[in-house]
Amino acid sequence: MPRVRDDKLLLMMLRAAGLSFSVLLLVNAVACRDKGRDKSDSTGASLPPVYPSNPLGNTNWNTDAGPVMVVSVGSGGDSIAVVLPEATDSTVAALQGISPPISGLTFDLFGRGGRIGSSIAASPLPPVDAKQDCYSWPLAKLQSAHSNWRVGFATGHVHAIAVDSIEAMTSADSAALAASLAQMAATLPTASDPTFRGLPFRVRSAYTFRLDSVDVVIADVVRSVNEEANPRLEHLLLLGERPAGTKGNYNLGYYNRTAGAEESTQATEVLTAVQIGPAKRPAIVVNIEYDDGGKLGLIERVGPGEWRATWRSAYTDC
Question: Is-above-0.85 flag for pTM?
Fold first, then answer.
């Protein structure tokens, strides 16, 4: 697409958000930063590109999830960052210093235990210094504080799914789950880095939940090379299903592999699980952690036994 058309589209988006033409000039002046690119070897299944071919390209955000997403920041339970789902790594610079577009919205709040709060109003906070050498989402403050929540959506757009942690299981159940995950990891349909071949798997985190007819597990399984001069780490994000109430192995529905230096390897944290929109499409909200920043993401169930990473936010590092 010609550059002039990109600029016109961006100007339309910025005007819709109440921004001036000077912000458009800022976009043209700021070079696309590379911090959000994967800093380690990475392979995966059904992963979207980190950078759209068009700076205003479709980010694959599920519009049934509402116009924005909010995440908890700080320890007070009432400070939020307002994630603008259509922003990309190429356009997030234009959003620095703006007021969050949350007028008239209330939010339902979710954690791994399910829904934490309902219909909570929020007020914008003063914009942060737009000249700082990092990117962040606009900030707001909830009308009332709530603990143990991680993610919020505009009221009524998503429904809660409570997840159980492997840490809360009996020793026998946790051992069986760990063994099943190790077997799943060992049979992945991808070439493993020879550096890690033959090393034991360790379950860093694992969560289970039930849909109508299936039990679902999502886990971060790791292997490490403990060399003092060059410690390396491999993360395998695994998602599997099996018929509800059965004790067999999980069938792989999605995976993603990252590997690299121990201190900088990308890792994925599960924030919550929800059902999106009238169709109640199951989705897992994740935080994709880099050594100095991160992205938010959605992994959605697109069919029986099939999950896909459908959306990633712009990269932020403030």
Answer: no
Inter-axis angle of helices 21-29 and 3-16, to 10 degrees?
130
Residue 210, both tokens? 């039930």
For 240-264, what is each residue's pLDDT tens digit?
999 999 998 999 999 999 888 877 7
Q: What is the pLDDT of residues 140-176, one digit of tens each?
A: 999 999 999 999 999 999 999 999 999 999 999 999 9
CB 59 within 8 A of CB 53: no
